[in-house]
Amino acid sequence: MIDLGLTKLAVIGVVALVVIGPEKLPKVARMAGTLYGRAQRYLNEVKSEVSREIEMEELRNLQKEVQDAAQTIKADVENSISRNMAEVEGAFSDTPAIDASSSAYDHSPFSYVTTDDVARKAREFRRKKLVRNSAIPNWYKQRHGGKLHVTSGAARVARFRPRGSTNSSFY
């Protein structure tokens, strides 16, 4: 701001004392101080409002960039999904999907899948699932009294309740 040294302040004070007079000088000095304080507060408010506006504009630009990036990612994902769905449908119907986007994917593993491969994979999956789910054979469970299926809590209570007592009182 303004470079005011001690000598400059002294000169301003002497000139104000001569021009204004010693009686009115304290009132004028107080008024000048309050006006100076108001001006500083006003300038600080303006600076903070300008900085807030700049930050809001930066946030709007950032939001717009993020939305644009999200739209491009969404479009890429949708294109990829539609292309992959066309390849899978072509593999299941034994006719490869022919369009402009599939020319780059002629060497994909989906273009050579046959129904025999699908049936073999299904058999392997069923066999592995059977091995996973039946670790203990049913004949062994029957012979040694193991659980054959899941029973509810009420069914277990009914199974082990004494047959002779029909009194349902708890007290």
Instruction: Give the N-terminus to C-terminus distance in angstroms.
Output: 93 Å
| Unreliable segments of 5+ consecutive residues | 100-106
- Structural class designation: mainly alpha
Give the DSSP E fraction (strand runs of 2 or more residues): under 5%
Estimated radius of gyration: 44 Å
What would you call the shape? elongated
The biggest beta sheet is recorded as: none
Mean pLDDT: 80
Output the number of helix runs: 5
Order of helices and strands: HHHHH
Helix content: 55-70%
Q: What is the tally of beta strands?
A: 0
Organism: Duganella sacchari
GO molecular function: protein transmembrane transporter activity
Keywords: Cell inner membrane, Cell membrane, Coiled coil, Membrane, Protein transport, Translocation, Transmembrane, Transmembrane helix, Transport
Coiled coil: 52-79
Structural account:
By secondary structure, the protein is mostly helical. It has a domain at 114-161. Helices cover 68% and strands 0% of the residues. The protein is built from five helices and no strands. The longest helix is centred in the middle third of the chain and has 68 residues, at 25-92. The protein is elongated.
